[in-house]
Amino acid sequence: MGKLKFVKAMAVGLAVWGMSAGASHAADIVGLITKTEGNPFFVKMREGAQAKAKELGLELRTFAGKFDGDNDSQVAAIENLISAGAKGFAIVPSDSAAIVPTIKKARDAGLLVIDLDTPTEPMDAVDVTFATDNRKAGMLIGEWAKGTLGDKAKDAKIAFLDLATNQPTVDYLRDQGFMQGFGIDVKDPNRYGDEDDPRICGHEMTGGAEDGGRTAMETLLQKCPDVNVMYTINEPAAAGGYQALKAAGKDDGSVLIVSIDGGCPGVKNVQAGIIGATSQQYPLKMAAMAMEAIEKYVKTGEKPKPTEGQEFTDTGATLVTDKPVEGVPSITSEEGLKLCWG
Amino acid sequence: MSDDATGSATAERGLAGHEQAVASFEEDRRSRLRQVQHFLHEYPTAIPFIVLIVGVAIFSVIVGGRFFALFNLSLVLQQVTIIAVLGIAQTLVILTAGIDLSVGAIMVLSSIVMGRLAVVWGWPPEIAFVAGLATGLLCGLINGVLVALIKLPPFIVTLGTWSVYGSMVIYVSHSETIRAQDIEATAPLLQWLGHTIRLGGGAVLTYGAIAMILIAVVVWYVLNRTAFGRHVYATGDDPEAARLAGINTARTLIAVYTLAGLICAVASWVLIGRIGAASPLGNQTANLDAITAVVIGGTSLFGGRGSLLGTLFGALIVGVFRNGLALAGFESLWQEFTVGILIILAVTIDQWIRKISA
What we know:
The complex is a heterodimer of chains A (342) and B (358). Chain A is an alpha/beta fold. Chain A has two domains: 26-131 and 283-305, Response regulator (Rossmann fold), CATH 3.40.50.2300; 134-281 and 317-339, Response regulator (Rossmann fold), CATH 3.40.50.2300. Chain A contains eleven helices and 13 strands. Chain A has helices at residues 2-24, 40-56, 71-83, 100-108, 134-149, 169-182, 210-223, 235-247, 264-271, 283-300, 333-339; strands at 29-34, 59-64, 88-91, 112-116, 128-131, 158-162, 200-205, 229-232, 256-261, 277-281, 313-314, 317-321, 330-331. A seven-stranded mixed sheet of chain A has the order 7-6-8-9-10-12-13, with helices on both faces. Chain B is an all-alpha fold and 358 residues long. Chain B has a single domain (46-357), classed as ABC transporter involved in vitamin B12 uptake, BtuC (Orthogonal Bundle). In chain B, 75% of the residues lie in helices and 2% in strands. Chain B is built from 15 helices and two strands. In chain B, helix 5 crosses helix 12 (249-275), helix 6 runs antiparallel to helix 7 (154-173) and helix 13 (286-296) packs across helix 14. The radius of gyration of chain B is 25 Å and the shape is globular. The A-B interface holds A 37-40, 42-43, 66-67, 165, 193, 202-205, 207-215, 218-219, 222-223, 236, 239-240, 242-243, 246-247, 265, 268-269, 272, 274, 342 and B 66, 72, 75, 78-79, 82, 163, 166, 169-170, 174-177, 179-181, 194, 196, 204, 271, 274-277, 279-284, 323, 326-327, 329, 331-333, 336.
């Protein structure tokens, strides 16, 4: 009897599979591969892609790595998409360089490959890149901090709450962008830690999360008790760093906090006056643009082109602050809340 | 006899002034080494304690007053509190020759349950808190049942539940962080362990650190002064012998994993106190950090030998080296490097003690 049940279940299963396989012939398969499901940025990206794919009548398959840096899961995801006969996919590479050979395999098989958020190395390994200009996002908050401090900017003491020891692309672009905006000589613009400006207190790693942010800021406060600017790689790190400031009794506004991302909790922290300014980016837009590009490619064979004068298509970054500085365009936290994600 | 004495005296006449001193030195050294080994066998926490003191001394010299200040030392204590609490849970499990890779995921899951129930669902903070504790307890119980009754290797079980609990974190949290300000407004109870006591000389003690010490005292008492504690050590040392001695090893194992889960849930309370928020991000390597603390603390991964105090020292050693190296201006990669060296040294010493005593 047990066996009979099993056979029946198999039969039903096969029938269902056959039906769904039949149905899928109607729609073109497209893919979205993100870094992790734990980060709201990528969750919003998936939601944006899902909504757009539905609107365009595409069948979307989504994948994510297990952790930031999980290359193997992304390789498997691409292989699955190739064998499923997908027309194209968008990917946020976890390992910018290691994913390149697998992407080449997909392009050789005729798939359109769109890179999102984090550029591959080299950048032309994909058909097109849709990303925030992270260096520009960093420059915006750097300029804002410089403008806010005014004359005091030359005596500032800056704590850098960075992402990770191996300095992934997004990490050094934001950090160095901030320095450029603030007026610090960055030396090698693609690496932080080689500067000799005395205003830099130090760089500590946060992993882009609250717990890391708090520990990093505690350490930097020990190193330089006179810190008055806190640069953070993202808003969770900023929230953690703020807890360290609070514990040290420095949550009275004496330390200027700047960040990047524009997630809803982060923009709320701008509204509450905790974060002075943040550069907002637009993951939903990135993903939606990718779905449209793939659809266009399927219909017309035309591939998307990057922004004039750039190697990639800039999806934009906007400064969100309630204390605007002259010469640095920005929107208010109220406007930012309407556009925020996560 | 007198003949022998005369004979040997005659024989030694030729050796006079030659190699006697060297021979006796060798003998002396070997016994001294054995003395050290016996000492370490008897006091397994001696090495981590010495390393901790040496570490503090080194950084006090290199960095100076900024490191060796009561405020900074109490800061290190704050920074290691979460890992120390997870380390206590991990010590219990490792004493039974097991391992728990899911401790960090259980902690984050419990914190998300607490934060979300209280802030998003609007439950009374007390009930949300208890639900968080129950979550940890349940996760631990599942681990224990799979290890003890289904008899799967602990490494495999917790490798699996690490993924399962990690996925639940994403599912329950919707990948959204509950902001510190929202928790402060609706459920200050959850941040209670973040409160501080200012002691003399600039030292700052968080309630979380005090909770950690209390947990350590309770678990120490259970391990060293109760029959259950003896059962834990016996089960880890030799499960077959323990069973023959009448110990219900399955029940002991289930109790250990469940207790570990509950302690992880308490760690989640410490976590919310520290970062203010309930966040699905971060703490990705908390499980490995907890194992690191246990191993550097001198507890044997083969079970049955080790101590809770060692684990606390182990956590502090990692904290002291990270803080000291950062203040001395080393890049963060050297912090990781040093922790790696400490782990290998600790296990080498453990193996050495086992070899000589065998």
